[in-house]
Design brief:
The complex is a heterodimer of chains A (187) and B (173).
Chain A lengths: L4 H9 L3 H23 L2 H17 L10 H19 L4 H12 L2 H4 L6 H20 L2 H12 L4 H8 L3 H19 L4
Chain B lengths: L12 H11 L5 H13 L1 H13 L11 H32 L3 H28 L3 H34 L7
Chain lengths: 187, 173
């Protein structure tokens, strides 16, 4: 029988590196995906999710087991992503190049290479979505990404954000309203 | 084709939040039924819901890294964890070096704090027994007034004595 996350945490606390490496293996894809939703960039998402794992490792002593390791770790991850977003100021040119490049990757859109018109539209959409998400206040962005992109329940998001479910609903509604207004032209 | 002047649909204000939750499947059965009933008879809300269905999926940027990416990820992570562990053990070694000193140092600190507290506390408590300047003055003032009275009486006595000396019947007394 496989040990649970909490068992692995207990082992890691005693200095068992392998136990923590196992936790990384279990959660790396999900962690990366959340980081990618915030950063919208592969390398940055990798760095952010790894940074979150390292912070979790060095602060394992603070994990009191009241919530699951999953919830505790993803709270750290979201904070790392929000801190990063606050620090980072990206230029329009960087985002434009990145959006166009990423849309040119064949695995991302369809098997057929997109037409120049489609590429332009996709690049425009990606930029617009990125900017609209960036413009959201951190709590709205977090609630939106965790619900819309990760499919977490309102209850899970509330636990992760350490707030009431009603508050998460309000954040989500406001985020959706703002995004609708920004992206109405693509409807 | 995108139209720049296209406006977002306007739903009934009191239903908007429920429409968002309906889209995400976060409503209870009865709430969902109520929203469905409303949407059937309300065109703006129906349009709003359709708009959510077309816009919100666009916000998810697809990304499926290849297996090599995950292999690199794990390798890098192991390396970083080893670095952090080494740093951690350095601190742990330092902490263990100071471990035997922990009790004597704590005890000395506790004694020092106690002594300081007593010294300062003594000054504080004794200062409460000392009367204020005003109070001292009020106590001294009547005594001083009495002194003046007695001095005046002495002068009067002396004058009586002189008068007695000066009078003819008593001069030789």
């Amino acid at each position: 029988m496989q040990p649970g996350d909490e068992d692995l945490v207990a082992l890691a606390r005693k200095g068992d590196h392998k136990a923590f490496e196992e936790l990384v293996e279990r959660h790396k894809q999900k962690a990366y995906r959340i980081a990618f939703d915030f950063a919208r960039d592969r390398e940055e998402a990798k760095d952010l999710s790894q940074e979150a794992f390292l912070r979790a490792y060095t602060h394992l002593g603070n994990f009191d087991g009241r919530s699951g390791f999953y919830t505790w770790f993803y709270r750290i991850l979201v904070n790392v992503c929000l801190d990063y977003k606050r620090r980072k100021k990206r230029t329009f040119a960087e985002e434009f190049n990145e959006a166009v490049e990423s849309q040119m990757e064949p695995s991302q859109v369809s098997q057929k290479p997109p037409s120049p018109d489609q590429q332009v539209l996709a690049g425009q959409l990606s930029r617009k979505v990125g900017a609209a998400l960036e413009a959201l206040p951190p709590k709205q962005r977090t609630a939106f990404i965790l619900k819309n992109n990760q499919g977490l329940s309102i209850k899970e998001i509330a636990e992760m954000m350490q707030t009431a479910e009603g508050t998460v609903k309000v954040h989500l509604h406001r985020a959706v309203t703002a995004l609708r207004q920004s992206l109405a032209e693509f409807a | 084709m995108a139209q720049d002047d296209k406006m977002a649909a306007v739903a009934c204000t009191q239903w908007e939040e429920d429409l968002v939750l309906h889209y995400y499947g976060e409503l209870a059965v009865n709430e969902r039924a109520a929203v469905d009933d409303h949407v059937r008879g309300c065109e703006p809300c129906r349009f709003y819901l359709k708009e959510l269905e077309s816009i919100l999926p666009l916000t998810v940027k697809p990304d499926e890294p290849p297996q090599t990416f995950w292999d690199d990820y794990s390798r890098e992570m192991r390396r970083k964890l080893t670095q952090v562990s080494d740093k951690k053990s350095w601190w742990q070694n330092l902490a263990s070096f100071f471990q035997p000193w922990a009790i004597p140092v704590s005890a000395t600190a506790a004694v020092a704090i106690l002594a300081l507290t007593l010294a300062l506390g003594k000054g504080f408590w004794s200062s409460k027994d000392v009367p204020q300047d005003d109070e001292v003055f009020m106590e001294i003032l009547p005594a001083a007034e009495n002194l003046e009275f007695f001095k005046t009486m002495d002068v009067l006595d002396a004058m009586d004595f002189l008068e007695d000396m000066g009078s003819p019947g008593k001069g030789s007394a």
